Amino acid sequence: MKRALVTGGNRGIGKAIAAGLRDAGLRVIIGARDPDHGQVAAAELGVEFKRLDLADPTSINEARPWVSHVDVLVNNAGILEDVPLFDDGTNFERSMQIMLQAPYELIRTALPGMKLRSYGRIVNVSSGWGSFAEGLGGGGAYAVAKAGLNALTMRAAQDLPATVKINAMCPGWVKTRMGGASATRSPEEGAETAIWLATLPDTGPTGGFFRDRKQIDW
User: Fold this and answer.
1) DSSP codes, 85-146
2) In this structure, how many other beta carbons lie within 10 angstroms of the beta carbon of residue 58?
3) Segments in the chain below pLDDT 70
4) Catalytic position from the list 129, 142, 196, 210
């Protein structure tokens, strides 16, 4: 049974992705900073929980032994501060850590095992706000971090073997704590493309940016 890690899988889009991958027959681990919320979500879903605080490099280092066995990695966790970019203060560094540095470290940790097993699927949950084509919107450092995650996706695809596929996706405007109650999509609708990318066949795409299973511009 293939193993999947979904970061930020204790709520919202991440929880919906975890449920979809569970239903697809994967052994799912949700990684989250808060053990109480993470364990409750894992119990509801019938999946495994591991504490993983992406803002803390020590937590990431402690997770390396089990992350190295992951076949499917969904870098979903993110933060959004609704402040002007240059009023962002320490959040700029935190945004880069959680949404760019941590995904890079998790990919680097999981990759040797994926290569050894000749199978890997990496999904970076990005945003249209991280797209140059769509104007780099959002508050604070969010757009800059997501644009960096997109760049990581595109560049990583050039280095990975054909058996390991990496793609970014935009879930759209989703009713979550981040998206707010006025959002137009459910977490399940937001998760659908990520689940598709996480379970791609050998002939599936790599190095792309997708929304609703359709490739979009960087």
Assistant:
1) GGG-TTHHHHHHIIIIIHHHHHHHHHHHHHHHHT-EEEEEE--GGG-TTTT--SSTTHHHHH
2) 8
3) 173-180, 183-184
4) 142
How many beta carbons lie within 10 A of that of residue 8, not counting itself?
A: 26
User: What letter does residue 7 receive in the DSSP assignment?
Assistant: E
Strand 209-211: give its sheet, edge to edge.
48-51, 27-32, 3-7, 72-75, 120-125, 164-169, 209-211, 214-215
Pair of tokens at residue 157: 């695809």
Listed residue (20, 86, 72, 74) closest to 47, CA to CA = 20
Catalytic residue flag (residue 119): no
Q: Give residue 177's pLDDT.
A: 65
Q: How far is CA 209 from the centre of its chain?
A: 13
pTM of the model: 0.95
The pLDDT of residue 211: 96
